[in-house]
Amino acid sequence: MEGITRFADHLTAELRPSMLASNSRTPADIFGLDPMVLQPDSEAEGDTIAPTEPSDDVNPAVSNTDLTEDASRDAADRGLRILGILLIVALVILSGQWLWMTTQRPEPLPWQHGDEFPQLFRVDVNEAKWIEWMQLKGIGQIMAHRIVADRETNGPFRSVEDLLRVHGIGPATLDEIRPWLTFDHGPQQ
């Protein structure tokens, strides 16, 4: 909390330099005290205090005006300190939320294929991107990337059975995805 107070003081000093530069007034001027100053009595042993007479250069009207100005400056200082503290708190909260949001991983949306999916969806074996391969049951993201990488490395597939050269695709997986595979947009049986 001390660091926040220091920051608020620094912020106040930057925003209101005229307030902090005018420290030449006496406490009697600032607090509107009677110009009669209490000083130790020179005749006594120093343990009694006697009032002295006011000096001629003190104007009570100016002291009241100064008091009003000082009160408004003090209120402005408090307002700036509170604003600084609120800004710091907001910054800390937003930073925490940003860190929390960036470390969270979104869950994939669950969905099911409708009855029309087998008739409408086809994957062109030699043109499909990895995201299209992932739509097939049994093909995940890693397997989809393997299929595309194999096609780019070894050339296009000449038949559906050529998919068996991809590590991780066996006869059972191939039989499961075969109804959705095409070459040049024609169904492959």
What do these coordinates show?
This protein is mainly α and 189 residues long. The chain has two domains: 2-92, no CATH class; 117-187, Photosystem II 12 kDa extrinsic protein (DNA polymerase, domain 1), CATH 1.10.150. It has eight helices and five strands. The chain has helices at residues 2-15, 17-21, 27-31, 60-103, 117-120, 130-133, 141-154, 171-177; strands at 38-40, 49-51, 123-124, 181-183, 186-187. Helix 1 (2-15) packs across helix 4. It starts with a helix and ends with a strand.
**Total count of strands:** 5
Give the number of helices: 8
Instruction: State Rg.
Output: 41 Å
Mean pLDDT: 74
Cα end-to-end separation: 73 Å
Number of domains: 2
Largest sheet: 3 strands, mixed
Tell me roughly what share of residues is in helical segments: 40-55%
Runs with pLDDT <50, length 5+?
18-22, 37-42
Look at the helices and sheets and give the structural class.
Answer: mainly alpha
What overall geometry do the principal axes of the alpha carbons give?
rod-shaped
Q: Output the strand order for the largest sheet.
A: 3-4-5
The amount of beta strand, in percent, is: 5-15%
* SSE succession: HHHEEHHEHHHEE
